[in-house]
């Protein structure tokens, strides 16, 4: 590999830009900070196959040069007390499934428990699997459950999902009734610092974001969000938040959902969803619909998903340039390329940009960065170097 690298670097000016992008991409450590793929494996999909549907499977991870992917075990806002008490169990089941997936593919996948594992895996031909949890409902308001997750190999937790937990407000909440983190929420953050678990503020309410940054002694990430200055959505971060994240030495992973990337796309997509919701007697606002009738909202979602492919033809084109626009914005606002990465949200979104339809096409991001004049060193940071730095800093803070 080193010989090839020396040759490529010395000849780089002669290389066709397409090959140069491909070379940098394959050689760099590529990290995707968020996917929802484990649900597909649990439903019986064979991820060893290059499947026609879905965003991630083993052949696509290889084709996309992915060295590390955060696989999120998902526990959403519980519908009732019974579900609330089953959240941890649900997550342990998904962790077990993730381990099964890795054990069945020992030549292709390996669980990453620390930054050193990740460094060792580089150039092994395997993709690292980092176990994440989305979201904090999973700990059932009990720090011992959080500690048990850490022992089970969980290295990242997204604090909330669409709506609040008992201890943290979410970005989908109209008002921050808990004023961000409660006292227990602050204990969760401190315990995650102690455990060396990466704190993820994607989905967090702005108030929660600011509380986390005040309390955390380690860098934090927003694993799958975009920039609010470009696309005004509560899931995206304001410029002040981006600057604070940079000051904290943290990182934002840019989400590939066209609805979070493009304001115009989002508006049209929302109008389309509102039309479907209206027919089912639901309010046009998604969060209000979810609160009013979760079952009917799921029905509206299913119809939306089914009709989206044909509706997309009438939507504005969102392609890889939109992802790089958000990367550019973070770089501009924070002053360097040290605080941005990729957080595709693959298998959790229905609207990835054209040309970035699955993990196998991630090199398109590298090609676009190169086309815009990014240096090779900055591209390597964005693709994965920044995440590795954060991972190491979180581990170091845990030991101190
Ligand atoms: Zn999410």
Written overview of the protein:
By secondary structure, the chain is of the alpha/beta class. It has one domain: Alpha-Beta Barrel (TIM Barrel), CATH 3.20.20.140. Helices cover 49% and strands 11% of the residues. The protein has 18 helices and nine strands. The strands form two sheets. Strands 1, 2, 3, 4, 5 and 6 form a six-stranded parallel sheet that branches. The chain has a three-stranded parallel sheet with strand order 7-8-9. The two termini are 36 Å apart.
Whole-number total of structural domains: 1
User: Helix amount, in percent?
Assistant: 40-55%
> CATH homologous superfamily?
Metal-dependent hydrolases
Give the oligomeric state: single chain
Low-confidence stretches: none
The biggest sheet, with number of strands, parallel, antiparallel or mixed sense and barrel status, is:
6 strands, parallel
Structural class: alpha/beta
Small molecules bound in the structure, each named once: zinc ion
Number of helices: 18
> What value does the Rg take, in angstroms?
20 Å
Mean pLDDT across all residues, rounded? 94
Q: What is the succession of H and E elements?
A: HHEHHEHHEHEHEHEHEHEHHHHHEHH
**In the CATH hierarchy, what is the class?**
Alpha Beta
């Amino acid at each position: 590999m080193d010989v090839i690298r020396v040759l490529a670097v010395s000849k780089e000016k002669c290389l066709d830009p397409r090959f140069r992008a491909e070379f940098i991409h394959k050689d760099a450590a590529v990290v995707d900070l968020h996917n929802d793929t484990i649900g597909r494996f649990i439903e019986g999909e064979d991820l060893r196959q290059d499947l026609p549907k879905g965003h991630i499977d083993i052949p696509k991870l290889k084709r996309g040069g992915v060295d590390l992917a955060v696989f999120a075990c998902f526990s959403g806002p519980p519908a009732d007390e019974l579900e609330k008490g089953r959240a941890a169990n649900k997550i342990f089941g998904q962790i077990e499934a993730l381990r099964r997936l890795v054990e069945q593919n020992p030549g292709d996948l390996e669980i990453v428990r620390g930054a050193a594992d990740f460094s060792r895996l580089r150039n092994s031909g395997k993709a690292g699997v980092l176990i994440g949890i989305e979201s904090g409902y999973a700990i059932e308001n009990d720090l011992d459950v959080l500690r048990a997750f850490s022992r089970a190999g969980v290295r990242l937790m997204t604090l909330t999902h669409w709506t609040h937990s008992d201890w943290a407000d979410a970005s989908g909440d109209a008002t921050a009734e808990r004023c961000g983190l409660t006292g227990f929420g602050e204990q969760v953050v401190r315990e995650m610092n102690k455990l060396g678990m990466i704190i993820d503020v994607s989905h967090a309410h702005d108030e929660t974001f600011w509380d986390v940054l005040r309390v955390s002694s380690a860098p934090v990430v927003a694993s799958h969000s975009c920039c609010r200055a470009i696309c005004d959505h509560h899931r995206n971060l304001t410029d002040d938040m981006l600057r604070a994240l940079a000051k904290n030495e943290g990182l934002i992973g840019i989400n590939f959902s066209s609805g979070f990337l493009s304001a115009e796309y989002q508006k049209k997509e929302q109008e389309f969803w509102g039309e479907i919701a209206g027919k089912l007697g639901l309010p046009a606002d998604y969060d209000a619909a979810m609160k009013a009738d979760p079952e009917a909202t799921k029905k509206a979602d299913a119809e939306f998903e089914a009709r989206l492919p044909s509706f997309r033809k009438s939507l504005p084109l969102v392609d890889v340039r939109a992802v790089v626009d958000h990367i550019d914005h973070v770089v501009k606002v924070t002053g360097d390329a040290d605080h941005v990465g990729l957080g595709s949200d693959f298998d959790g979104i229905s609207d990835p940009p054209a040309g970035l339809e699955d993990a196998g096409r991630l090199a398109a991001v590298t090609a676009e960065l190169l086309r815009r004049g990014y240096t090779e060193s900055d591209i390597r940071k964005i693709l994965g170097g920044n995440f590795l730095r954060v991972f190491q800093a979180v581990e170091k803070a845990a030991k101190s």
